[in-house]
Amino acid sequence: TKHMGRNGYHFFQPSMNTLAQTQLQLMNDLWLATERKEFRLVYQPKFQAPAGPIIGFEALLRWQHPKRGMLSPDIFLPLAEKTGLIVPLGNWVIDEACRQLSEWREQGNIDWSVAVNLSTLQFEQPSLVQTIMDSLQKHGVPPDTLILEVTETTAMTNPDESVRVLTELTDAGVQASIDDFGTGYSSLLYLKRLPACELKIDRAFVRELSSDGDDATIVSAIIALAKTLNLKVVAEGVETAEQQAFLTELGCNTLQGYLLGRPVTPEIISSQGNTLCQQ
Ligand code: C2E
Ligand code: CA
Ligand code: CA
Ligand code: CA
């Protein structure tokens, strides 16, 4: 409740005040973080089902906060989106992923792809296609080794425009992936128009696989649908051997999850080399 105190001081509950302060502080830190180069990418391997080889990685953003340690996107992405910082930050992600790709290629890993996540605001930038092409060229990376992960919800925000942008990118050779599939509301007809090469089943469905019969039905249906549309299927959040076996049996092409590999720094990937497959 908002009671004016004697000195007009008690406008918010103390807890509310602290929360607002924390958010303000975080927002301030977030702007500084770019200059201070506190952002990092970690990479989670994607395995050909059931257990390898590694076909590529998904780049996942982390913030090495000076006081709070390594922060996950859940903590700062909503804020970055609200302030618009996600646009330059997202452009940095694309460029850094391309740089990493070229480094891995120089080390002989020419079959690896890297997937980057695009937020809605970033996806809506008219300069996006040029930004991506510039980074690919700057680092001498073949377009088809870069995969853009766009959530079903992002794609549906402006469906016709999404088809246009993704067509432009895929015409240039870049790959597109529909992320968090099953959580949005895209129609079959729309899905058919999207020039994507793969579909990622949302973790929520994979999580329930062994315990909930209904979700097994949904996952089977998603995989069947993807096959009809000639899309590869990636399952994310694979945590148990049971899920791994079941998803493979259902025809999933690619598996990603803690069971096979957690997101790790590029240093760890370089030092482990190909033994990463046997993790
Ligand atoms: P996402 O794209 O769905 O990414 C998968 C998330 O699931 C990652 O969380 C990953 O670490 C986590 N994960 C992977 N395997 C498992 C598993 O077996 N079990 C469980 N419980 N989790 C698993 P993370 O890294 O915290 O990222 C969260 C979300 O933040 C991502 O969800 C993505 O939407 C967003 N994000 C991450 N990096 C970027 C980025 O560079 N740009 C944008 N726009 N969004 C990003
Ligand atoms: Ca993703
Ligand atoms: Ca996802
Ligand atoms: Ca997700």
Automatic annotation (TrEMBL):
<protein>
    <submittedName>
        <fullName>EAL domain-containing protein</fullName>
    </submittedName>
</protein>
<feature type="domain" description="EAL">
    <location>
        <begin position="23"/>
        <end position="277"/>
    </location>
</feature>
